[in-house]
From TrEMBL:
<feature type="domain" description="NodB homology">
    <location>
        <begin position="116"/>
        <end position="299"/>
    </location>
</feature>
<protein>
    <recommendedName>
        <fullName>NodB homology domain-containing protein</fullName>
    </recommendedName>
</protein>
<dbReference type="InterPro" id="IPR002509">
    <property type="entry name" value="NODB_dom"/>
</dbReference>
<dbReference type="Pfam" id="PF01522">
    <property type="entry name" value="Polysacc_deac_1"/>
</dbReference>
<dbReference type="GO" id="GO:0016810">
    <property type="term" value="F:hydrolase activity, acting on carbon-nitrogen (but not peptide) bonds"/>
</dbReference>
<dbReference type="InterPro" id="IPR011330">
    <property type="entry name" value="Glyco_hydro/deAcase_b/a-brl"/>
</dbReference>
<dbReference type="GO" id="GO:0005975">
    <property type="term" value="P:carbohydrate metabolic process"/>
</dbReference>
<dbReference type="InterPro" id="IPR050248">
    <property type="entry name" value="Polysacc_deacetylase_ArnD"/>
</dbReference>
Length: 316
């Protein structure tokens, strides 16, 4: 069967089935698009188009497309030691609630619920491809957010980290190599956290106070170590599931269906090895515009919770 306007036919090549090109293994430069390729912006598709939502994301296309032309070497952020974000590493939500109940002063799930304020948080960056796109959208919509950064990626993309900070966002600690901390010794946990803060402090002159464990995985031992080092553990109460291979509309639906006053929303500003963040980039303008229409403002986690962003500076 041939698609309209296409010289290709799906059934004519049974031994070499056509596949969606994988941007992570594709040769550089990225091959020109097939002549029959027409991008379909998600917000022009049902159910958004059916629902009569206005089209007001002119940014989405140029930005999402631009990354294809970035040289291949720049696209690779260091791999997570514990592998990409995935369901098998993540404790059930009930564990987060339980840990918060047992350590109410050390573990944050959300902010006060009496004000229509929401904190967007972005994990796993910085990188040179996706984080700049997130930053561009946040700047366009004048939203301040909180970035939980991975130390080895800070080391690789220091200028993007400095851009995050310079543009008024808050930088938190998300470990050095993104392992599952519950599988490490106490000394290794301390090294993961402190090495990251050292690198951030070297680049920004401030030392993070907020820590988010990779995969949201904690144990009593890890909590003890992190709290003893003087950090506040920040979870979330709305998971965009942008790490789970969803489309842009699905990511937007997850956030919009669950966000409420005081929400801390989990999103990602960089992928694991071989992962893109197009759904996050595509959904973000829609999430911001929609929640603003419902009267929400966007704040950082420190603004939402009253918790300081950074450790007190050592005198002298
Ligand atoms: Zn992470």
């Amino acid at each position: 069967m041939a698609y309209p306007g296409s010289s290709r036919s799906v059934s004519s090549a049974p031994h070499a089935p056509w596949r969606i090109p994988d941007p992570w293994s594709a040769p550089d430069p990225w091959p020109a698009p097939e002549p029959w390729f027409t991008p379909d912006p998600w917000f022009l598709q049902p159910p958004y188009a059916w629902a009569g939502y206005p089209v007001e994301h002119p940014l989405t296309f140029p930005v999402v497309d631009a990354w294809r032309h970035v040289p291949h070497a720049w696209r690779q952020a260091p791999a997570h030691a514990g592998g990409p974000e995935r369901i098998t590493e993540r404790p059930p939500r009930a564990h987060h609630i339980d840990w918060h109940a047992r350590y109410p002063n050390d573990i944050i799930l959300h902010g006060p619920t009496d004000r229509k304020a929401i904190a967007l948080t972005f994990d796993d960056g910085p990188d040179d491809v996706w984080t700049p796109q997130i930053l561009r959208i946040l700047a366009q919509y004048q939203v301040k957010a909180t970035f939980f950064c991975v130390g080895q990626r800070v080391q690789q993309s220091p200028r993007v980290l400095q851009q995050i900070y310079r543009e008024g966002h808050v930088v938190g600690n998300h470990s050095w190599s993104h392992p599952n901390l519950t599988r490490l010794s106490p000394a290794e946990v301390r090294a993961e956290v402190e090495r990251t803060s050292d690198e951030i402090q070297r680049l920004l002159g401030v030392r993070p106070y907020l820590f988010r464990p990779p995969y949201g995985a904690l144990s009593d031992e890890v909590i003890r170590e992190v709290v003893a080092m003087g950090y506040k553990i920040v979870f979330w109460n709305v998971d965009s599931l942008d790490w789970a291979g969803l489309t842009g509309p699905q990511v937007a639906a997850n956030v919009l269906a669950h966000a409420g006053p005081g929400a801390i929303v989990l999103m990602h500003s960089a992928g694991g090895t071989g992962e893109g963040r197009e759904p996050t980039v595509q959904s973000l303008p829609y999430i911001i515009v929609t929640l603003r229409r419902f009267g929400y403002t966007f704040v950082t986690v420190p603004e939402l919770t009253g918790i300081p962003a950074y450790q007190p500076q050592a005198p002298g």
